[in-house]
Design a protein that fits this description.
There is one protein chain. This protein is mostly helical. The chain has a single domain, classed as hpI Integrase, Chain A (Orthogonal Bundle), CATH 1.10.443. The protein contains ten helices and two strands. Strands 1-2 form a two-stranded antiparallel ribbon. A hairpin with a 2-residue loop joins β1 and β2. α3 packs across α7 and α7 runs antiparallel to α8. The protein is globular.
């Protein structure tokens, strides 16, 4: 838009459309979201305890990659399963574990950080983490763990407004982006839970 306005002001014939990007928040790039079993299986293959901790923390709490480096580790050491993000992209917030069993399974009470330079911007810290897992051949993108948390929270029955607040974004972003990757399996499980309710609506009888 800026370039187009400058060209118009300078009375230069310029068409910016061929150079426009195709990104749109309502049309995010396709993702292959890992299953919970995939996440655990890959975590078990990691030998570096620092990166093991980072992966487990992001998977359990749906963090942005850089946020794994800016949480209250003292609370974790004390056994507090409510995670306090101190200064993420959207400021301080609290996040609950989905699955709570992962807190113990991933040993999150024993924070061990990898050797990452934290005296940088959030983007660069997050990029270092993302790049590391790409370089060692991680079968999914680190950010996909955040999407998996959003879907998992939905299956637990957490309201969209609460899930969005814990993830540090708006409800619109939550429903338009993060819930885009809900597949048929998730829908089927939700359908079966609804049908199992004793108070579900029943059709009128067709018998005379």
């Amino acid at each position: 838009m800026v370039t187009q306005q400058l060209a118009k002001f300078a009375k230069v014939d310029y068409n910016p459309k061929p150079y426009q990007g195709k990104y749109s928040p309502k049309k995010p790039q396709p993702r292959q979201i890992p299953s919970d079993a995939d996440i655990v299986a890959y975590w078990l293959t990691l030998e570096n305890p620092g990166w093991r901790f980072v992966l487990g923390l992001i998977a359990t709490y749906g963090l942005r990659p850089h946020e794994a480096f800016v949480v209250d580790y003292d609370r974790l050491k004390g056994g507090d399963r409510i995670l306090w993000v101190l200064k993420g992209k959207t400021g301080e917030r609290r996040v609950w574990a989905f699955h709570p069993e992962w807190f113990d399974q991933f040993r999150l009470h024993d924070p061990i950080l990898p050797g990452v330079n934290l005296d940088r911007s959030n983007d660069k810290i997050g990029h270092s983490a993302t790049r590391h897992f790409w370089e060692i051949g991680c079968p999914f993108k680190l950010y996909d763990l955040r999407h998996a948390w959003a879907i998992r929270a939905l299956e637990y029955g957490l309201e969209d407004a609460l899930a969005a607040k814990q993830m540090g974004h708006s409800v619109d972003v939550h429903t338009e982006t993060y819930q885009l990757w809900i597949d048929a399996v998730v829908h089927q499980r939700a359908y079966e839970r609804v049908l199992a309710r004793n108070d579900r609506p029943k059709p009128p009888s067709s018998q005379k």
